[in-house]
Amino acid sequence: MLRVYLDTCTVNSRKVLAELNLMDSMFELTHVDYFSGAHESLEYLEINPNGAVPALTDGDFALSESNAILQYAAELSGSDKYYPKNIKQRADINRWLLWEASTWFPSCYIYLVEYVGKPLMNAKPDVTVIDAEAPNWHRLASILDMRLAKSKWLVGNDVTIADIAVAAPMHVHKWQRLPLDAHTNLARWMADVEQLPCWRQTQGAVETALRLA
Asked: What is the CATH number of the domain that holds 172?
């Protein structure tokens, strides 16, 4: 059976947990307390030498990188419902997974650090950092907005692992103060993601972990 190691407060942990719930996957969960530094313990570093959460093990096979975990779990499920085998659909999904990790996550993360992370550490947000990133964030959000003007979900009319991956960096968007109102289609899509049972299952744990409840 799959075992996942994560802390739901982190973006990529939330991503993996939501996808596993989406697919009704069977797995065992091991909590790795991010705020206490458990992800840097020698025991955990044997599973993921990067010292980051999440990670997955399947017998003696260990896997890190959240989007790789999404792909592996989807393949293992035996269904192509959320990760279609059609070569063009899969290439489109993979494109969004790569874009999220390399481009979208870093931009959203700046808002997360300033408006969520710093207050947790009793520090004040640096508005100049937000102001410097805002043009880039709006540019990226516009890319999503244009795509979502054409379909309900990122890759057509059915939810896929791409939707979970790209939504994850915005998972506490209200507290991140992400300006979604400027991007109507993106805001509509995020609201749809938040109504998915797999997403709602994880919301309470996230808010409690980040002291947002």
From this structure: 1.20.1050.10
Q: Name the domain boundary from 76, 111, 127.
A: 76
- The 10 Å CB-count burial string (b at 16+, else e) for 93-125 is beebbebbbeebbebbebbbbbbbeeeeeeeeb
Q: What is the mean pLDDT of residues 145-159?
A: 97
Tokens 């069977």 — which residue? 26
Rounded to 5 degrees, φ, ψ at 23 are -90, 5
Q: How far apart are CA 86 and CA 63, in angstroms?
A: 25
**Chain segment 154-212, per-residue pLDDT in tens:** 999 999 999 999 999 999 999 999 999 999 999 999 999 999 999 999 888 888 878 77
Say if residue 47 is in the same domain as residue 112.
no
Round to whole Å and give the CA distance between 176 and 68.
26
Under the banding of pLDDT at 50, 70 and 90, the label for residue 3 is very high
Within a 10 A sphere around the Cβ of 34, how many other Cβ atoms? 18
**What is the rounded CA–CA span in Å between residue 19 and residue 42?**
28
| Nearest of 35, 25, 28 to residue 5 by alpha carbon | 28
- Examine the domain organization and report whether 151 and 114 are in the same domain: yes
Q: Are strands 2-6 and 27-31 parallel, antiparallel or unpaired?
A: parallel
Instruction: Output the average pLDDT for the chain.
Output: 95
The sign of the torsion formed by the CA atoms of 167, 172, 176, 180 equals positive
Q: Could you give the strand order of the β-sheet that contains 27-31, starting from the edge strand earlier in sequence?
A: 27-31, 2-6, 55-58, 61-64
pTM (whole model) above 0.70:
yes
